[in-house]
Design brief:
This protein is of the alpha+beta class. It has 6 helices and 8 strands. It is elongated.
């Protein structure tokens, strides 16, 4: 009842909370714990707020709720929905929860696109670079899961360094970089990655040799300055 009536989207149809892998792992632990408790206690067991929040923001539930409320909105006579908990005799066990028609927008996705995520510590083993035409994607092996990905190289300085042969491409060469990942929801509510873009190449690595790029040095100095500023803000 609470999962179905808890708003998880803004009026613009975007998720209010951006889920992380840690959230999903925590949700699975909470569900397993809840199942064990249900076997030991009375059916009227009170459920903590946290697992409800985790379940309500789960992309699969967000997609399912979106489809449900989108269908309801197609029926003008539906002014609200009311949910009640019933016992084995179909009598009300507790209070009811309701969602009014004007609140339906808080459950309906306007787009399946999700906010992009940024991996500041990505490592990609380059399989094939493309130096001359930015419309084509490079191919490499992404360290997170070892999957082969096609990605856009937006670090123009790095491409120029390779084109001028200041950095030579060698089979097995890896780059540590900043990687932006565009994501969307599938029809089943699963999060899928649709596009990868390298914005900054921090360093190149081959065997035991590492070379930090000029733009990588600027990026690392910026991160260090932001870290110091954060420390000052916390203790200032």
């Amino acid at each position: 009842m609470q999962v179905l009536t808890r708003p998880t989207l803004s009026v613009g149809g975007q998720p209010l909370v951006d889920r992380t892998r840690a959230d999903d792992e925590k949700m699975q632990r909470e569900i397993a714990l809840l199942r064990r408790e249900l076997k030991l206690k009375e059916p009227a067991l009170t459920i903590n707020r946290e697992p409800i929040q985790l379940l309500a923001s789960w992309p699969r539930f967000c997609k399912a709720k979106s489809n449900f409320y989108e269908a309801l909105r197609g029926y003008p006579k539906v002014t609200k929905i009311t949910l009640r908990e019933l016992n084995e005799n179909n009598h009300s066990r507790s209070g009811s929860l309701e969602v009014k028609r004007e609140q339906f927008d808080y459950f309906i996705l306007r787009s399946d696109d999700l906010p992009p995520v940024k991996d500041n510590k990505a490592t990609i083993e380059i399989i094939s670079p493309v130096l001359k035409d930015s419309r084509y994607r490079w191919k490499g092996i992404y360290n997170k899961g070892g999957e082969t990905i096609d990605f856009y190289m937006q670090d123009e300085d790095f491409k120029k360094q390779m084109f001028d042969e200041k950095i030579s491409f060698t089979s097995g060469m890896c780059i540590d970089c900043v990687l932006e990942i565009e994501r969307k929801l599938s029809e089943l509510g699963e999060t899928i990655n649709v596009s990868y873009t390298v914005t900054t190449v921090i360093r190149t690595r081959f065997d035991k040799m590492e070379i930090v790029t000029p733009q990588g040095k600027r990026h690392l100095r910026k991160l260090e300055a932001e870290k110091k500023q954060l420390t000052l803000d916390l203790f200032g």
